[in-house]
Design brief:
Elements (H helix, E strand, L loop, with lengths): L12 H9 L4 H7 L5 H10 L2 E4 L4 E4 L6 H22 L4 H7 L5 H10 L2 E4 L4 E4 L6 H27 L26 H13 L4 H15 L3 H8 L1
Antiparallel strand pairs: 1-2, 3-4
Helix pairs in contact: 2-3, 9-10
Length: 232
């Protein structure tokens, strides 16, 4: 406990509460600190941001009331998030949703949802709120998938902007049977930038890039027969 230089108990909110918890009344505290009335102690505590809890007979920090504009912003934000979630559950395209709800593009919408605490769930094809109870590894996996989705969307946006320019595309194209699966990979940001530049120049998306790269590598390094079987 903190003591004043004169040997008395220092006049602080913490010490006042400690004395109250030891069973002293506010009237006794007023006398201890040389006040005529407990109301002087009460005024001091209120100036320090405390309020009296009559049930516990102790002072507690006042809960700050949110500003009116903050409440309005939260309500508006919650409504917009619900609209976005509803649209995705209805199967609408991200670009269409962004346009309908007033976002500049679908990438801005993705940033907005991330700021609101939502991550993209590939299985549900929708955003899900980051639950603090979820395992950290699971959050990391979902976050990586979300980043992958945004990279794919960003690449596709570049393609849309340059679609009319054609591009120098002499790459092989493959039509693969079977179900598509999501893969999450991590590599250098510098290599990623080259990948984005390449896909834009060649007018392909990232899925096509990795399919071509994987097939050509396996053909070159001993899996030519297996690739022929895959392609039929």
């Amino acid at each position: 406990m903190e003591y004043a230089k004169n040997g008395g108990i220092a006049y602080t909110p913490e010490n006042i509460n400690k004395q109250l918890l030891l069973g002293k009344s506010r009237e006794q505290l007023a006398k201890l600190y040389g006040h005529k009335s407990w109301k002087t102690v009460d005024m001091f505590m209120r100036r320090k941001g405390y309020s009296w809890n009559g049930d516990k007979k102790v002072y507690e920090i006042k809960a700050k009331r949110p500003k009116k504009e903050d409440v309005n912003d939260d309500q508006a934000g919650s409504k917009r998030v619900r609209q976005i979630l509803k649209a995705f559950k209805e199967g609408k395209d991200a670009k269409k949703i962004a346009k309908e709800l007033g976002f500049k593009n679908h990438l801005i919408l993705a940033e907005y949802m991330k700021d609101k605490g939502y991550l993209w769930d590939h299985k549900e094809s929708c955003y899900k709120f980051k639950d603090s109870a979820v395992d950290e590894k699971e959050i990391g996996s979902v976050h990586s998938n979300n980043m992958g989705l945004e990279l794919e969307e960003r690449s596709q946006q570049f393609l849309d902007e340059r679609e009319q320019l054609g591009g120098n595309n002499n790459l092989p194209r493959y039509s693969l049977a079977g179900l598509r699966v999501a893969k999450t990979i991590q590599f250098s940001n510098n290599l990623n930038q080259l990948l984005l530049n390449f896909t834009v120049d060649k007018n392909i998306n990232q899925r096509e890039f990795f399919e071509i790269a994987a097939i050509e590598m396996m053909k070159k390094y001993g899996y030519e027969a297996e690739i022929k079987g895959l392609l039929g």
